[in-house]
Amino acid sequence: MPAAFDFSAWIRHRALPFWRARGLCPNGFGAVEHIRADGSAALYPLRRSRVHARQAFVFAAAARDMGTDDLPLAQHLLAFAHRTAASGFIPIASDNHGRPVGDAHRLYDLAFYILANAECPAPVIPWDWLKQALAKLRAPLGWWDDRLRCAPRTQNAHMHLFEAASAAHRATGDPDWAEVADECRALFLTVFLQPDGTVLELFDAHWRPVKQGQRVEPGHGAEWVYLGHQDPQIAAAADLDTIFSAATRALGHAGFLPDQADDPLAGRRLWPQTELLRAALAQRARGRVLPPHLTPEAIIQRIAHSYLTPQGGWIDARDHAGRITAAHMPSSSFYHIFNAWRAWHDVQPRAGLTAGARASQPRRQQIPDHNPFVPPRAPSPIAPLR
Ligand SMILES: O=P(O)(O)OC[C@H]1O[C@@H](O)[C@@H](O)[C@@H](O)[C@@H]1O
């Protein structure tokens, strides 16, 4: 089945202009936390630190892969994120005057600082600063989730640290980042991944799974299938087919991944669907024959019609019955969408390229501006650009 939805045209001509126009603080204090359903930027809610870094990643990636002029914007966002951490600790968030709020120094947020820095052709944040920031969270095995060593410890933060450290190693060739990735990989293979292919989320200080609140997020299983496919050591050591089967066992009747497995009333955010798309692309690249409802073409159509808006925004969450539950579009979801676009176009991470060579090799794709949704779809509840 040919894909009717033009993902590239949507990203270039709808999403990037929409988020450039509305997703940034007009006073220069980073990215907004979300855009409201009426299309207006929400200027007052606190902006989580990860949001500036994730949007920096997206704009740097667009500059690199699509040849857009977004690199200065990415650099501005990441430099702002860095400034909010002038104390040496990454705040939980910043306010609409750019002031840091909290100093938890979360591993999860730091992972996105590292990832965005690696995406830029030259570091915006000194790599040594990022290494020191990580050293503040060092644990006997892995890293603490924040500087207060709050429990439970999470696989999620280490999954994103694995992604970021791998990117930092590709960008710099620095073996220190390879060591960070090695440790996260080992944790995945020996602690997080279960024999039945599920991935547990929560652990105590000694990496024993906690019982209370323990859960399985199939979106994370799907994410590991893609990350594992990109990583020869995981691909050799883990059974990606079993992980893919475990994640897709949770699929609802309409073909969407719920946020949580084993809960018939679980809602479904946008991001598990983009991770399912990446996992399906990985499985196909590995020569697996996918059932019709799990082909990448089928998944992208479902994403386009259930979540993406013609204006370049998104409906971020629906409940188990498909009803819209998100009142706004979080900026943080663009990172997932852009990564899915990368996988869809098989844009591979490029190892061994120097920063200068990367900067001079943007993929200047010519993408015509036409309706990315073919055939025309029902009007979106999101207001058009004014
Ligand atoms: O909830 P936000 O910040 O949009 O993040 C969206 C999701 O990203 C994924 O990669 C995971 O880390 C999830 O646990 C997280 O919920």
Automatic annotation (TrEMBL):
List each coiled-coil range.
none
Gene Ontology MF annotations: mannose-6-phosphate isomerase activity
Composition skew (Pro residues), residue ranges: 373-386
What domain of life does the native source organism fall in?
Answer: Bacteria
- EC number(s) stated in the UniProt entry for this protein: 5.3.1.8
Q: Is Glycoprotein one of the keywords? A: no
InterPro entries given in the database record: 6-hairpin_glycosidase_sf, 6hp_glycosidase-like_sf, AGE/CE
Chain spans, region Disordered: 355-386
Could you tell me the keywords of this UniProt record?
Isomerase
User: Could you tell me which SUPFAM superfamilies the record lists for this protein?
Assistant: Six-hairpin glycosidases (SSF48208)
Question: Which Gene3D superfamilies does this entry report, sorted A to Z?
Answer: 1.50.10.10
Output the GO biological process annotations, alphabetical, semicolon-separated.
carbohydrate metabolic process
Give the family from UniProt: Belongs to the N-acylglucosamine 2-epimerase family.
Protein name per UniProt: Mannose-6-phosphate isomerase
Gene field: manA
